[in-house]
């Protein structure tokens, strides 16, 4: 098994990969230090520990006041180590923690974080951020062919690096989390009737559809994924109330959300764009209603049946209910399961998931990597974990007799880039 793993790891490490999900901001903003955003409240070494690892720090016991100081640009970088070090020892073995460790060790040459290494880390962190560093980290160090970005800045980002950073259309402001002001600000389009809004949506798809790689909707953070067939007659008066600035509860506006979501799905399909949906675990802390997460797979069945021509990408393997998502991929021709984010949520579960997927569902129906980060530096650490996990899964299948070793190279290429190329690029 050790010899097999060594050979398979060498193949996996040399195989290029497509990254199907990131939240990377534009490189030029990083270079300018023009941040001021939720995931970049500070621009020092602490930024590496905020996206995802910060949630583990909180859950491990770090006090909110200490986290606020740790995140602050006004707290000197020299003082931040003492704030987080006791909690870092508690999370260093989680997937979130290991992604940071790999980044520290391989990108910065820092074996671990302590009083002697924090200074060199801060210096190397700053020295790395210069024009071209996205290309350096993603293409040269990670061997990523391209990243697919769900922008945290705009509904559709006209990126400065379109060959490297393929862009999603962010669907919620058009449908499930209507934001008329944002649409007017970004596209100079507005409407006060449902018919007018449908025209706005259609024009946005006409403008952005040929440049986008997919459509993304993370609405599972706020509601169930049960999108019923509401009518325009039900939706129109609700839209007028939204346009008038009236506040409504989520249950009350559900027919409007359902109607607009389905309209966007139809437009995405017409433009040949897969529809990405958040499923499973929630980012953040202290706020996940697990009863709703448990229903994700079952709620999606009606959508998959009613839109057979739409390619749905079900993100994050539905963790911790990943077995149900293997069943969806096996049952529905239009369902793909994306392992984005999942490798750092639970690396061991992802090895099991990939093994079970390969012997259960068609091999073309799984996408095996998306870093899901805002800081590009941590994509490296996540990619390292994913490559290690892919190699383990394939090697264990060979060792268990479910896969012949001579079949492995072609399967690895298919998993790491072939499936994404076929789904998004043809």
Strand segment count: 8
How many helices in DSSP terms?
Answer: 19
* Helical content (DSSP H or I, runs of 4+): 40-55%
- Counting helices, strands and paired strands, the structural category is alpha/beta
The fourth-level CATH homologous superfamily of the largest domain is Metal-dependent hydrolases
Please state the overall shape, judged from the principal axes of the Cα atoms. Answer: globular
Element-level helix/strand string: HEHHHHHHHEEHHEHHEHHEHEHHEHH
What's the mean pLDDT score?
A: 97
Cα-atom Rg, whole angstroms?
22 Å
> Approximately what portion of the residues adopt beta-strand conformation?
5-15%
Distance between the termini: 37 Å
The CATH class of the largest domain: Alpha Beta
The side-by-side strand order for the widest beta sheet comes to 1-2-3-4-5-6-7-8
CATH architecture of the largest domain: Alpha-Beta Barrel
Number of domains: 2
Q: Would you give the CATH topology of the largest domain?
A: TIM Barrel
Low-confidence stretches: none
Q: Biggest β-sheet, characterized? A: 8 strands, parallel
The oligomerization state is single chain
């Amino acid at each position: 098994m050790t010899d097999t793993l060594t050979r398979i790891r060498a193949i996996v490490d040399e195989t290029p990969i497509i990254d199907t999900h990131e939240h990377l901001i534009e490189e030029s903003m990083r270079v300018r230090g023009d941040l001021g955003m939720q995931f970049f409240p500070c621009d020092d070494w602490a930024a590496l520990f905020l996206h995802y690892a910060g949630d583990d720090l909180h859950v491990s016991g770090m006090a909110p006041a200490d986290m606020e100081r740790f995140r602050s640009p006004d707290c000197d970088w020299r003082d931040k180590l003492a704030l987080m070090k006791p909690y870092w020892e508690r999370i260093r073995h989680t997937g979130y923690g290991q992604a940071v460790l790999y980044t520290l060790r391989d990108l910065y040459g820092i074996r671990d974080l302590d009083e002697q290494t924090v200074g060199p880390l801060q210096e190397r962190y700053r020295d790395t951020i210069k024009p071209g560093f996205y290309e350096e980290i993603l293409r040269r160090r990670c061997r990523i062919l391209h990243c697919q970005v769900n922008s945290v800045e705009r509904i559709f980002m006209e990126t400065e690096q379109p060959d490297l950073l393929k862009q999603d259309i962010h669907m919620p402001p058009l449908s499930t989390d209507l934001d008329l002001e944002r649409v007017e600000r970004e596209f100079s389009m507005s409407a006060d009737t449902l018919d007018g809004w449908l025209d706005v949506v259609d024009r946005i798809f006409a403008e952005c559809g040929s440049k986008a790689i997919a459509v993304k909707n993370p609405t599972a953070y706020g509601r169930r994924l049960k999108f019923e067939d509401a009518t325009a007659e039900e939706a129109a008066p609700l839209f007028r109330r939204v346009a008038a600035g009236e506040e409504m509860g989520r249950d009350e506006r559900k027919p409007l959300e359902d109607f607009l979501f389905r309209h966007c799905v139809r437009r995405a399909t017409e433009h040949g764009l897969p529809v990405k949906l958040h499923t499973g675990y929630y980012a953040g802390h202290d706020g996940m209603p697990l009863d709703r997460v448990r229903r994700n797979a079952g709620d999606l069945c009606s959508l998959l049946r009613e839109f057979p021509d739409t390619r749905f990408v079900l993100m994050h393997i539905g963790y911790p209910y990943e077995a149900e998502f293997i069943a969806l991929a096996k049952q529905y021709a239009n369902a793909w399961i994306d392992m984005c984010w999942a490798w750092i949520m639970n690396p061991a579960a992802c090895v099991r998931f990939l093994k079970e997927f390969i012997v259960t569902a068609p091999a073309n129906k799984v996408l095996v990597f998306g870093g899901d980060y805002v800081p590009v530096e941590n994509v490296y650490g996540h990619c390292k974990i994913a490559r290690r996990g892919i190699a383990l899964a394939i090697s264990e299948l060979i060792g268990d007799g479910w896969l012949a070793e001579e079949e492995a190279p072609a399967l690895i290429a298919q998993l790491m880039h072939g499936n994404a190329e076929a789904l998004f690029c043809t």
